[in-house]
Design brief:
Oligomer: single chain
Structural class: alpha/beta
Radius of gyration: 15 Å
Number of strands: 9
CATH architecture: 3-Layer(aba) Sandwich
Number of domains: 1
CATH superfamily: Methylesterase CheB, C-terminal domain
Largest sheet: 7 strands, parallel
């Protein structure tokens, strides 16, 4: 599918959600990320709550932009990849800072993709792009629907390519995303959105 022509407003941030198979998918999507990439990327990948996340360390060695685990009250900076830590929901506040909370799990997950996407949609409105990748539950479908409702760009990995198709299929069933793409197509789209 081609991106719709109605998406004229510049994208100011990207939020990405994944579960089973998500680390590999994200490595493909962010491979060869250009040094000039300007957007903040906020990512939830479901992890066991009892295990400390190593995602920031894994990706910092592979990317030319800053990579870190999002911290409570931290201002969102451009050209930075933020990961949600294990055991906390990650939200975006209206002043474009992060907040962490220990509220109940959503779809058995904390951090929840829905929580991050919905809060980012409320903050960024039509200037947000949301991406749902491979995963084994329905987390992300409601959050992506909120992004669409607010006029943002909605992107879903082609379920036929996903390691686990449940999450992309749930998102497609919940809303009609702007684009359904293979990982290479998502990478190309993000690079265009984030180019200066």
């Amino acid at each position: 599918m081609k991106a719709t022509a109605k998406k004229k407003q510049a994208i100011e941030a990207v939020v990405i959600g994944a579960s089973a198979g998500g680390v590999h998918a994200l490595l493909v999507v962010l491979a060869d990320l250009p040094r000039s990439f300007r957007l903040p990327l906020m990512v939830v990948i479901h992890l066991p709550e009892d295990r400390e996340s190593q995602l920031a360390e894994i990706f910092q060695y592979r990317l030319p932009i800053a990579v870190r685990e999002a911290a409570d009250k931290e201002s969102i900076a451009p050209a930075t990849l933020y990961f949600a830590g294990s055991g906390y929901h990650l939200s975006v506040e209206m002043d474009r800072t992060f907040s962490l909370s220990c509220e109940e799990a959503v779809h058995y997950s904390r951090p929840s993709i829905d929580v991050l996407m919905a809060s980012a949609a409320d903050c960024y409105g039509s200037a947000l792009a949301g991406v749902v990748l491979t995963g084994a539950n329905e987390d992300g479908a409601a959050g992506l629907a909120r992004i669409k409702q607010q006029g943002g760009l909605t992107v879903v990995q082609d379920p036929a390519e996903a390691e686990v198709s449940t999450m992309p299929e749930a998102a497609i069933a919940r809303l009609k995303p702007d684009v359904v793409l293979k990982l290479a197509g998502i990478r190309d789209l993000l690079f265009r959105l984030g180019s200066p």
